[in-house]
Design goal:
CATH superfamily of one domain: SH3 Domains
Structural class: mainly beta
CATH class of one domain: Mainly Beta
Largest sheet: 6 strands, mixed
Shape: globular
Strand content: 35-45%
CATH architecture of one domain: Roll
Radius of gyration: 28 Å
Number of helices: 3
Amino acid sequence: MSYSEKAEFILQYSVFMQIRLLGGNLVKKIALLVVLLSFVFGTVIYAGGVGQQLEIPLLVVNTSFLNARSGPGPQFTVITTLVGGTELPVLGSNGDQTWYLVTTADGNAWVDVSFTLARGSFAYVPEIEVPAAPVALATPLTIGLPGTGSVSAGGTQPAIGSTSDERYRAVLQVSSVNLRNRPAEQGGVIATLFRNDALDFAILGMANTAGVNWVQIVVPNVGIGWIEAPKVAMRLSAINYQVVIVTAGPANLLSAPGSTNASLPPLFNGEEAFLINASGNLYQVELGNGLSGWLPVNTVTIRTGTTSDVLHGTTQVAAADVTTAAQSSPIPVPVLEAGRVVINTSYQNVRTGPGPQYASIAVVAGGTELPVAGVTEDALWYLVTGDFGQGWVSQEFVVFRGAFSAVPVIAY
């Protein structure tokens, strides 16, 4: 309880006890009741004068639209966009008072003070220490929900819902999501889950309600519930097979040890595969789509730290292995904004490699936003994704947006 809250409580309790002690003196009771009511409505009358309660400081949005983010900086994800004139109660500030944590209709979020007008006294606004946002190796590959016909690392597609034979796990791709008791927006909320790229959940099933795909997951310490499929990505599960991540891509997937056949598609940084076998300096791997081959050991790293990595070789999910934010927090979980580029010329070629000597696979119009999958070591070319698949654009003709520190470097 803060100092002001303690003062209010003491004063209210004091007035209440005085009214009781007055017994049957109705006139004195009414007089003290007036004092109490004046306190409730904002003015407290003391014997020596009038004391005013401090109002909650406000920030007023002073631009047409203002992004409110999960952390105090432009590199964090946008929680909501506020229109000009919106009044925002202030909860706290960062170290240098350039960003403030405020209350919005969509929950608490951070805003840049330079785009607001201050109202009230900020002398007692607390400073809030914000935990550092995790920098993921790469955004988990969104490959769609597992079907029934693809080939698994063991040779056959496991049955959905079998935790001992699971192939995929769900990982959140949004700041937060409600876990519901049925696959519908009207379903009751079991808990609110917050994004943490190290956490993933066993999948029990899928459903489609009113055109929306839903995934049924298991959340330890909470229970079984449903979340919208577009808000998750499928990560390879390491329960039965260790998972490797490409860290020195592009890496050619070879058809056999000693083969020079590079007809199979290359793998880029951040792509995952099951580790099936090893021979010398090569790993035999299988991709999520069932395609298998061999990769040099020095092009991949064995994945560690995710829920299923910790549970590798087990058939049960221990409660201690997964934590969930079932209780709401006044401070949003900081999540770095995914990297993207905006085309800054009338038309831009997307090429097969990082250089003007490579063939153009698409031409995109100015203003187009493209997700960034990687960057060259000299930061002159970005690997982007779109309807054309994957290709390269020159940094000279684009504007980068998001957290550059989270973009994997691709040795080409």
